[in-house]
Amino acid sequence: QVQLVESGGGLVQPGGSLRLSCAASGFTLDYYAIGWFRQAPGEEREGVSCISSSDGSTYYADSVKGRFTISRDNAKNTVYLQMNSLKPEDTAIYYCATEDDLCLGTEADFYSWGQGTQVTVSS
Fold first, then answer.
1. CA torsion 111→117→118→123, rounded to 10°?
2. Which of 9, 19, 23, 90 supports an S-S bond with 117, CB 3.0-4.6 Å?
3. How many CA atoms lie within 13 A of 111 on its CB side?
4. What is the tens place of the pLDDT at every residue in 71-123?
């Protein structure tokens, strides 16, 4: 079965850090771009970050630049999202999804979505 599984979420205080993992099962991530998205209750899902396959280029939403870092470990078939200096507004369910090669498409172009992992930032 081809699927992505997110993990690493949890409850953290403002200013704290979490590392999310997006692990692929049933296929190899080497040739796919991986995007991270998040959705808070009552809000639309928004793009957070993306990492391309062929050139390794990265993308970050303005709201997370300087705080989040996306990376990939092809040997482990996993993409990570290191989240530092977390804020309450980062609270959301975080999802990962695939796109072909480059981070060029819109959210609608992503497929093979994971089930999400909850991140809650609160004191």
1. -120
2. 9
3. 6
4. 999 899 999 999 999 999 999 999 999 998 889 878 899 988 999 999 999 99
For CA atoms 37, 97, 50, 109, give the dihedral sign: negative
- Strand order of the β-sheet with 92-100 is 10-12, 117-121, 92-100, 32-39, 46-51, 58-60
Residue 16 CA to residue 14 CA, distance in Å, equals 5
Check: CB of residue 21 under 8 Å from CB of residue 32. Answer: no
CB atoms within 10 A of CB 106: 8
User: How far is Cα 56 from Cα 70, in angstroms, rounded to an integer?
Assistant: 10
